[in-house]
Write a structure and sequence with these properties.
The chain is mainly β. Helices cover 10% and strands 27% of the residues. The protein has one helix and nine strands. A five-stranded antiparallel β-sheet has the order 8-6-5-2-9, with no helix packed on it. A two-stranded antiparallel ribbon has the order 1-7. The longest helix has 14 residues. The termini are far apart.
Length: 144
């Protein structure tokens, strides 16, 4: 005996499975954009080895501020904006230094709570408690 699902129910099941196949951007992203899903890539910490801080450079955002994006090379949706003069921790860079992976605290909170001044045994994705993202190279004064 064969069991057949009613056509509308089968369509709903197929649509829900198809929706699971591609992750959608995080809910707090900018408004929906046309095209493929946004590429997100978490910032890696500890890339300089276990004897150095998880993020090796405390830098200041240059005058005019900067936009923070979900991944290197992504420019369609801004994740956050950081004001000029704000401190950020630069944790990694793309091979051509066109993009920096940063960790930064929310306005009015202590940047020391981010935990990136400590060493980590192995390189890993930053999981919080602070914010993270990608900025274009040249938008910060390194080591400031």
């Amino acid at each position: 005996m064969k069991h057949r699902l009613p056509t509308p129910l089968a369509a709903v099941l197929i649509a829900s499975l198809a929706a699971c196949s591609q992750p959608s951007p995080p809910a707090d992203n900018a408004p929906a954009l046309p095209g493929e899903p946004l590429a997100t890539r978490a910032v890696m910490i500890g890339t300089e080895g276990p004897s150095l801080p998880a993020c090796s450079s405390i830098s200041r955002v240059k005058a005019g501020g900067t936009d923070v994006f979900w991944g290197p090379g992504e420019t369609r949706a801004v994740k956050a904006k950081i004001a000029g003069g704000a401190k950020v921790s630069v944790c990694e860079a793309t091979d051509d230094d066109a993009w920096f992976g940063i960790v930064f605290s929310a306005p009015g909170t202590d940047e020391d709570m981010c935990g990136v001044a400590k060493t980590v045994q192995n390189a890993r994705e930053y999981q919080g408690p602070c914010r993270w993202g990608w900025i274009k190279g040249g938008t910060v004064q390194l080591g400031a």
